[in-house]
Each structure stands twice: as structure tokens, then as C-alpha cells.
Amino acid sequence: MKSKIFKTLDEQIEILSSKGLMINDIRKAKEVLIRENYFFVSGYRHLFMRSDKDNTFIKGTTFEELYGMFLFDRKVRNIMFKYILVVENNLKSIISYELSRKYGYKEKDYLDPKNFTQDAIKTRQVKDVLNKMKRQIRVNGRKHTATMHYIDNYGYIPMWILVKVLSLGIISELYSILKSDDRMFIAELYKMDAETLGIYISLLANYRNICAHEDILYDYRTQRQIPDNKYHRMLDIDKTDGEYIFGKNDLFALIIMLKQMISEEEFHDLIGEVSYEVDHLDGIVDVVPLNRILNRIGFPDNWHDIVDLA
């Protein structure tokens, strides 16, 4: 098996230069590479390649443009992460409220298997999810001030405190095993059907992990797609073979989800922050047209119009 070997900064610069990348300030480029990691920065090269088969840069591409795309993705990733956390907190609050209201506030009450779907097909899933939640109590109960306070003073952790140590992935699994009327109650708060909300929570957990681990976000595509909705229609997004080409499993799909799950004011701020970064990138990158970059991200040309849609 062929192996990758260590490359010095000079060798990294030489590799980029040999592929046609213009490096005007070698000292600065080296500072970026040692601080940010050659592998991570070069991960954005595909946008600037001549073609899928020609592994050389478009003539005139500069290191500043490559690094600019890297920074754009980081800033957008941080913006998205911030608002995903808002949704995560809201979901935890709503779910813990509903379960506590209906089933009690002690673990033995709200973690009773009778409180969840009785579908025989999901029996094992219910058991697995509840065991994960109990494990979080055992492992993390004394690692957080709030949970430790309840354990020491009351001998139990109420649901509205337990959610502090639950990941969004576990919250997604928890939602999937709720009784149908509990899922409907939560979904109605977001003015959507229970199945759609389940898809959204699962995908948000996916995007949260991408953002938290600093993976490439701008051209990421999820395996699952969000259902067609009014925003696809109102923006008149183009179709291929009857399927919308944007806003299904790309970054614009995340924006559509956030449109439906955060406040109008928060969403207005989100679009303003993303718009600023798009404009800033447009001032840095010359060799690739902005509309091509936006389409690679999954944004239709009129993406910004979503902020004014009801």
C-alpha cells in the first residue's frame, strides 16, 4: 500500500506551486500552512481546479484566494453552529417540559418505558435510547455543576437538567421514540408535521457535528434530504428530473431548516451575517465567479430572498 510521507513547509509550497497556484508571499503562506495545516487548507483546492480530471489550478489562482475560501467556510461554519445551538437549546427545553409535565420529574418516572412508543418494532430502540440517557447520568452527572447540585441535594436529576448533558444526536433518537401525540405536540410548536421535524432534528445533529469538528461545510451533502416545502416553491428553485437542485441536502437546506426553527429576528441576523461573508469572499476570489461558488454551496441565485418570505 502506498503511504503518505511527511512534507516540509518548503515541500508543501512546492507542491502547490507545481499545480499552478500563485504564491506571492511565501513567508506568509508558510505561516498559514503551519498554523492551519496543509491538509485542511488544500482541502478547498477542488473549487479552483481546471476540471475534475485536471488536477491543476485555474490560471491565475492565488494562495490568498485558496486561503480566503478556507476562512469563508470557517466563518460560515461558526455562524451556522451558533444558530444550531439555539435550536438545540430550544428543543431540549421543549422536550424536557413535555416529558416532565406528562410523566414526572424524576428519572424513574420520565424514563419509564411505558412513556414511549409501544410499537413492537421499536421496542429495542426504546431500550437502547433510555440506556444511553441513563449512562449519561452515570458518566456525566458529576461533571456539571447543575446535575451535581441535584444529585447532592435531591438525589435525582430532573429532565430539564438532564438535557444539559445529552447530545443533539441523543435528543434526535429520543424524539423518534416518543409517543405520536408527544411528537405532534412538539412539531406543532414549529408549525410542521412530526415526521418532518424528526428529519430536521436528525440532520441538524449531523450538521452540528460537521461544525463542531471543523470539517468542510460549504459543499457538504447529507445522505437524507429535507422534504419539499413552500420555500422551494416560493424561490422557484430549478428542478432536474422533477427534483429541486438546491435546498434539499446542502447548506441551503440547513438555512431552510433554521428558517423554520429560530425566531424571525434570529433568522434575519443569520442571513445578514452570511451575506456579509459572501460579499467579503466575492472581494477576494476573482478566478471563480460568485454564482458558481454559491451554486457549489447549494445556494440558488436568489438565496437571500428567503429572509423576506413568511
Describe this structure in words.
This protein is mainly alpha-helical. The protein contains 15 helices and 2 strands. Helices cover 60% and strands 1% of the residues. It is globular and about 65 Å long.
Brief characterization of the structure:
The protein is built from 15 helices and 2 strands.
Features:
single chain; 310 residues; mainly alpha; two-stranded antiparallel ribbon; 60% helix
- Poorly predicted segments: none
Distance between the termini: 55 Å
Query: Helix content range of the residues, please?
Result: 55-70%
User: What count of helical segments does DSSP give?
Assistant: 15
Order of helices and strands: HHHHHHHHHHHHEEHHH
- What's the number of extended β-strand segments? 2
How are the SSEs placed, and which strands pair?
Layout: H1 9-18, H2 26-36, H3 38-42, H4 63-103, H5 107-110, H6 123-140, H7 145-154, H8 159-162, H9 168-176, H10 180-189, H11 194-212, H12 230-234, E1 239-240, E2 243-244, H13 251-261, H14 264-284, H15 290-297
Antiparallel strand pairs: 1-2
Helix pairs in contact: 1-2, 4-11, 4-13, 4-14, 9-11, 10-11
